[in-house]
Write a structure and sequence with these properties.
Blueprint (H helix, E strand, L loop, with lengths): L5 H22 L6 H14 L3 E5 L2 H11 L6 E6 L5 H8 L3 E5 L10 H14 L3 E6 L10 H11 L2 E5 L7 E2 L2 E2 L6 E5 L13 E5 L2 H10 L23 H33 L12 E2 L5 E4 L3 H13 L29 H9 E4 L7 H14 L1
Parallel strand pairs: 2-3, 2-4, 4-5, 5-8
Antiparallel strand pairs: 1-9, 6-7, 6-10, 8-9, 11-12
Helix pairs in contact: 1-8, 2-8, 3-4, 3-7, 5-6, 8-11, 9-11
The structure holds pyridoxal-5'-phosphate.
Amino acid sequence: MQFRDLKAQYQALRPEIDSAIQTVLDHSEFILGKPVAELEERLAAYVGRKYCVSCANGTDALQLSLMAMNIGKGDVVFTSDFTYFASAGAASLLGATVILVDIDRRTFNICPKALERAVQRVLAEGQLIPKVIIPVDLFGLPADYSNIIPIAETYGLKVLEDGAQGFGGNVNGRSACSFGDISATSFFPAKPLGCYGDGGAIFVDDHQLAERLRSLRAQGKSSADKYDNREIGINSRLDTIQAAILLPKLRAFIEYELSAVNQAAQWYTERLKNTVATPYIPDGFYSSWAQYTIMLEDDRTRDRVREALKEHGIPSMIYYPRGIHQQEAYQAMCFSDEWYPNTIQATKTVLSLPIHPYLKEEDADRICKVIIDNV
Ligand SMILES: *Cc1c(COP(=O)(O)O)cnc(C)c1O
């Protein structure tokens, strides 16, 4: 059994994907060919944003967004402590100070109350300037924007949505990657919408911001002349082949994969809800299920369940085994475990189960039986 069955998806879409790749080879426009612009248009329309600027990966999407927000030394960027490293790393790389914030213990997303306290603390210290909040749509569930955006407005901060795992989710019909000033996503193969290598995209509504991002992804070139550089940028483009692969995959994602993965999540929840803590989806929220993550009693129970699953040939993963504040790269910041009780609790109890649109009900049955027999 696969944790995320990319082969089953390829088999389902094989004729379209193969011919899309072949067409790129025949035209040989490997960089910024037609499929790139077409994909950007479709992505923007799907998430309900005016502009999409594709790039080389989700980490670059975050970094380019922060560059377009002019973030650097002396600025503070707030993000969740319980996320993939890039949510924090992209800001640190630009010289900003990252302040990590504890999560809500039920949604695993950044806790708005803890966030506001962190902003107030930075302001009271008066050394650094709070600039950006990076909420993460963890495991496919959009962050609590209705409580985060008012905090950003109160303190004059920008919001950068890390939608790397959130693509396809929504809150009362408003799509992930449409929240905040800028949204970033990733097309890493295992994300809700993945390509066959690295890929990413940025979403904005402001024309000038979109133009700046297009420049920044091409060494800061001016729009008129490729060899006239108006600022320092990076080289970060989505390959034409990846865009061509994403076009049929986006269509399948919209037509049936997103509902199929929600069906798979429902099979799990029906079978497990009386035995373990199943994912909490607040009213009005819709997840794209980048992960289906349960919580066990404690780390010993988790080890036991994981071992039993492994004996039955069922893969499972721990997302994440440590908070960002516990990463060696952030030791100099002296973050204390005591500030992150919910992250710490999550790192000891979470377990992510195989989930993808091609999971069968009998797979869910088998997986749930092993869990129920071993908790
Ligand atoms: C995957 C991921 C990223 C980075 O995306 P890449 O395409 O791997 O660079 C950033 N943030 C989160 C939350 C992610 O899960």
